[in-house]
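Researcher: We're teaching a course module on how sequence relates to structure. For the next exercise, students receive a sequence and then see the predicted structure as C-alpha coordinates, so they can try to spot secondary structure elements on their own. Here is the exercise chain.
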Amino acid sequence: MTLGPRLAAMLLAMASVTQAVGCGHSEGKASNSTVTLGAAGEIPDSPVSKTTPADVVPVSASGTANVEAPSSKSLDEKPLVPTEVAATPTIVAADELRTFKVEGPESAIRVSFDDVDLLKVMNLDPVPVDAPERLPKWLKELDGKRIRVRGFMFPPFQDTDIRGFVLARDNQICCFGRTPKEYDLVETFLRKGVTTHYIQNRPFDVVGVFRIKSEIEKYTAMYELEDAVVIEK
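Model: And here is the predicted structure for the students to work with:
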Protein backbone atom coordinates (compact mmCIF):
# COMPACT_ATOMS: atom_id res chain seq x y z
CA MET A 1 0.00 0.00 0.00
CA THR A 2 1.41 3.42 -0.94
CA LEU A 3 1.18 6.22 1.65
CA GLY A 4 -0.08 9.61 0.60
CA PRO A 5 2.46 12.45 0.58
CA ARG A 6 0.98 14.22 3.65
CA LEU A 7 0.74 11.02 5.76
CA ALA A 8 4.28 9.99 4.84
CA ALA A 9 5.60 13.42 5.88
CA MET A 10 3.79 13.20 9.24
CA LEU A 11 5.23 9.75 10.00
CA LEU A 12 8.72 10.92 9.07
CA ALA A 13 8.43 13.92 11.41
CA MET A 14 7.20 11.72 14.29
CA ALA A 15 10.11 9.33 13.79
CA SER A 16 12.59 12.22 13.88
CA VAL A 17 11.15 13.54 17.15
CA THR A 18 11.22 10.08 18.75
CA GLN A 19 14.84 9.56 17.73
CA ALA A 20 15.91 13.00 19.09
CA VAL A 21 14.08 12.87 22.43
CA GLY A 22 14.31 9.17 23.30
CA CYS A 23 11.90 6.96 25.21
CA GLY A 24 12.01 9.10 28.39
CA HIS A 25 12.34 6.21 30.89
CA SER A 26 15.71 7.39 32.26
CA GLU A 27 15.91 11.08 31.31
CA GLY A 28 15.43 13.70 34.02
CA LYS A 29 15.34 11.20 36.92
CA ALA A 30 17.88 11.32 39.72
CA SER A 31 19.50 8.05 40.67
CA ASN A 32 19.44 6.62 44.18
CA SER A 33 22.96 7.97 44.81
CA THR A 34 22.77 11.52 43.41
CA VAL A 35 20.48 14.51 43.35
CA THR A 36 20.54 17.43 40.89
CA LEU A 37 19.46 20.89 42.04
CA GLY A 38 18.83 24.05 40.05
CA ALA A 39 17.00 24.51 36.76
CA ALA A 40 16.62 20.78 36.03
CA GLY A 41 13.19 19.83 34.79
CA GLU A 42 12.15 23.32 33.76
CA ILE A 43 13.74 23.19 30.32
CA PRO A 44 12.84 20.34 27.93
CA ASP A 45 15.48 17.63 27.84
CA SER A 46 16.48 18.03 24.22
CA PRO A 47 19.80 18.07 22.38
CA VAL A 48 19.58 21.87 22.17
CA SER A 49 19.30 22.20 25.96
CA LYS A 50 22.52 20.24 26.47
CA THR A 51 24.82 21.60 23.75
CA THR A 52 25.09 24.43 21.31
CA PRO A 53 25.19 22.83 17.84
CA ALA A 54 26.75 24.92 15.10
CA ASP A 55 23.70 24.53 12.88
CA VAL A 56 21.18 25.90 15.40
CA VAL A 57 19.63 29.13 14.17
CA PRO A 58 18.42 31.63 16.82
CA VAL A 59 14.69 32.27 16.73
CA SER A 60 13.10 35.63 17.50
CA ALA A 61 10.11 36.20 19.79
CA SER A 62 7.85 36.21 16.75
CA GLY A 63 8.87 32.65 15.95
CA THR A 64 10.82 33.52 12.82
CA ALA A 65 14.41 32.47 12.29
CA ASN A 66 17.03 35.20 12.43
CA VAL A 67 18.66 34.44 9.07
CA GLU A 68 20.92 37.10 7.65
CA ALA A 69 20.18 38.33 4.15
CA PRO A 70 22.95 37.81 1.56
CA SER A 71 25.60 40.48 1.87
CA SER A 72 27.34 42.27 -0.94
CA LYS A 73 30.43 42.87 1.19
CA SER A 74 33.71 41.20 0.38
CA LEU A 75 34.46 37.71 1.66
CA ASP A 76 37.35 39.06 3.73
CA GLU A 77 34.99 40.77 6.14
CA LYS A 78 33.60 38.87 9.11
CA PRO A 79 30.00 37.70 8.68
CA LEU A 80 27.29 39.43 10.66
CA VAL A 81 26.15 37.71 13.85
CA PRO A 82 22.41 37.66 14.69
CA THR A 83 21.76 39.86 17.71
CA GLU A 84 18.27 38.65 18.61
CA VAL A 85 17.94 36.03 21.33
CA ALA A 86 15.40 33.27 21.76
CA ALA A 87 12.26 34.19 23.69
CA THR A 88 12.73 31.12 25.92
CA PRO A 89 16.33 30.28 26.91
CA THR A 90 17.41 26.80 25.89
CA ILE A 91 20.92 26.79 27.29
CA VAL A 92 21.35 26.35 31.05
CA ALA A 93 24.10 28.39 32.69
CA ALA A 94 26.84 26.26 34.25
CA ASP A 95 26.12 27.54 37.75
CA GLU A 96 22.40 26.81 37.52
CA LEU A 97 22.82 23.05 37.87
CA ARG A 98 24.68 21.16 40.56
CA THR A 99 24.71 17.41 41.24
CA PHE A 100 25.41 16.07 44.73
CA LYS A 101 25.93 12.59 46.12
CA VAL A 102 23.38 11.17 48.54
CA GLU A 103 24.82 8.99 51.28
CA GLY A 104 24.33 7.54 54.74
CA PRO A 105 21.38 6.04 56.60
CA GLU A 106 19.51 9.36 56.55
CA SER A 107 20.00 9.80 52.78
CA ALA A 108 21.69 13.16 53.31
CA ILE A 109 23.12 15.26 50.48
CA ARG A 110 26.90 15.45 50.73
CA VAL A 111 27.88 19.14 50.70
CA SER A 112 31.27 20.71 51.26
CA PHE A 113 32.18 24.18 52.44
CA ASP A 114 33.43 24.83 48.91
CA ASP A 115 29.86 24.34 47.66
CA VAL A 116 28.57 27.17 49.86
CA ASP A 117 31.64 29.41 49.51
CA LEU A 118 30.23 32.59 47.96
CA LEU A 119 33.64 33.72 46.76
CA LYS A 120 34.11 30.52 44.76
CA VAL A 121 30.46 30.20 43.70
CA MET A 122 29.62 33.84 42.94
CA ASN A 123 32.86 35.79 43.33
CA LEU A 124 31.28 37.79 46.16
CA ASP A 125 33.80 39.60 48.35
CA PRO A 126 32.79 41.05 50.68
CA VAL A 127 29.45 39.39 51.31
CA PRO A 128 26.64 41.94 50.81
CA VAL A 129 23.61 42.06 53.10
CA ASP A 130 21.36 40.90 50.25
CA ALA A 131 23.52 37.85 49.49
CA PRO A 132 20.71 35.34 50.34
CA GLU A 133 18.57 36.85 47.59
CA ARG A 134 21.37 36.65 45.02
CA LEU A 135 22.27 33.00 45.50
CA PRO A 136 22.07 30.65 42.49
CA LYS A 137 18.93 28.57 42.31
CA TRP A 138 20.63 25.26 43.13
CA LEU A 139 22.04 26.75 46.34
CA LYS A 140 18.65 28.15 47.36
CA GLU A 141 17.14 24.71 46.78
CA LEU A 142 19.48 23.23 49.39
CA ASP A 143 17.50 25.15 52.00
CA GLY A 144 15.29 22.66 53.82
CA LYS A 145 17.22 19.63 52.54
CA ARG A 146 19.02 17.22 54.87
CA ILE A 147 22.71 17.57 54.15
CA ARG A 148 25.96 16.05 55.38
CA VAL A 149 28.92 18.39 55.82
CA ARG A 150 32.41 17.94 57.26
CA GLY A 151 34.14 20.52 59.41
CA PHE A 152 35.66 21.42 62.77
CA MET A 153 33.95 22.34 66.03
CA PHE A 154 34.53 25.94 66.99
CA PRO A 155 35.60 25.89 70.67
CA PRO A 156 32.40 25.92 72.76
CA PHE A 157 31.95 27.11 76.35
CA GLN A 158 31.71 23.56 77.74
CA ASP A 159 33.23 20.15 77.10
CA THR A 160 30.21 17.85 77.53
CA ASP A 161 26.42 17.86 77.14
CA ILE A 162 26.68 20.26 74.20
CA ARG A 163 23.30 20.94 72.56
CA GLY A 164 24.57 23.26 69.88
CA PHE A 165 27.83 24.55 68.43
CA VAL A 166 29.36 26.32 65.46
CA LEU A 167 30.78 24.11 62.72
CA ALA A 168 33.79 25.81 61.12
CA ARG A 169 35.38 25.28 57.75
CA ASP A 170 38.83 24.61 59.23
CA ASN A 171 40.70 24.75 62.50
CA GLN A 172 42.46 28.00 61.59
CA ILE A 173 39.33 29.97 62.44
CA CYS A 174 39.89 30.93 66.04
CA CYS A 175 41.52 33.42 68.36
CA PHE A 176 44.83 33.81 66.52
CA GLY A 177 43.76 32.47 63.12
CA ARG A 178 42.08 34.16 60.19
CA THR A 179 38.80 36.04 60.44
CA PRO A 180 35.99 33.81 59.17
CA LYS A 181 33.69 34.74 56.32
CA GLU A 182 29.95 34.45 56.78
CA TYR A 183 29.94 31.25 54.69
CA ASP A 184 32.79 29.65 56.69
CA LEU A 185 30.54 28.94 59.68
CA VAL A 186 27.38 26.88 60.21
CA GLU A 187 25.37 27.26 63.41
CA THR A 188 24.41 23.72 64.44
CA PHE A 189 21.44 22.78 66.63
CA LEU A 190 21.35 19.12 67.63
CA ARG A 191 18.31 16.88 67.46
CA LYS A 192 16.00 16.90 70.47
CA GLY A 193 17.41 14.71 73.25
CA VAL A 194 20.83 14.47 71.58
CA THR A 195 24.05 15.99 72.94
CA THR A 196 27.71 15.77 72.04
CA HIS A 197 31.10 16.50 73.59
CA TYR A 198 33.81 18.87 72.46
CA ILE A 199 35.63 17.37 69.49
CA GLN A 200 38.95 19.16 69.50
CA ASN A 201 41.14 19.86 66.50
CA ARG A 202 39.90 17.12 64.16
CA PRO A 203 37.25 17.04 61.42
CA PHE A 204 33.96 15.18 61.67
CA ASP A 205 30.64 14.96 59.82
CA VAL A 206 27.36 16.54 60.82
CA VAL A 207 23.98 15.61 59.31
CA GLY A 208 21.11 18.06 59.61
CA VAL A 209 18.50 20.16 57.83
CA PHE A 210 20.23 23.02 56.02
CA ARG A 211 18.91 26.56 56.40
CA ILE A 212 20.00 29.83 54.79
CA LYS A 213 19.40 32.89 56.93
CA SER A 214 17.33 35.62 55.30
CA GLU A 215 19.36 38.27 57.14
CA ILE A 216 23.06 38.03 57.87
CA GLU A 217 25.54 40.00 59.91
CA LYS A 218 29.23 40.44 59.26
CA TYR A 219 31.48 37.73 60.77
CA THR A 220 28.48 35.61 61.81
CA ALA A 221 27.26 32.39 60.22
CA MET A 222 24.81 32.78 57.35
CA TYR A 223 23.95 29.06 57.40
CA GLU A 224 22.30 26.81 59.99
CA LEU A 225 21.78 23.09 60.58
CA GLU A 226 18.66 21.97 62.43
CA ASP A 227 17.76 18.55 63.84
CA ALA A 228 21.43 17.68 63.56
CA VAL A 229 23.45 14.63 64.62
CA VAL A 230 27.22 14.28 64.90
CA ILE A 231 29.02 11.46 63.11
CA GLU A 232 32.50 11.03 64.61
CA LYS A 233 34.57 9.41 61.90
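Model: If you want an answer key for the exercise: Helices lie at 5-21, 47-50, 118-122, 131-134, 137-140. Confidence is low (pLDDT under 50) at residues 7-31, 41-75, 78-94.
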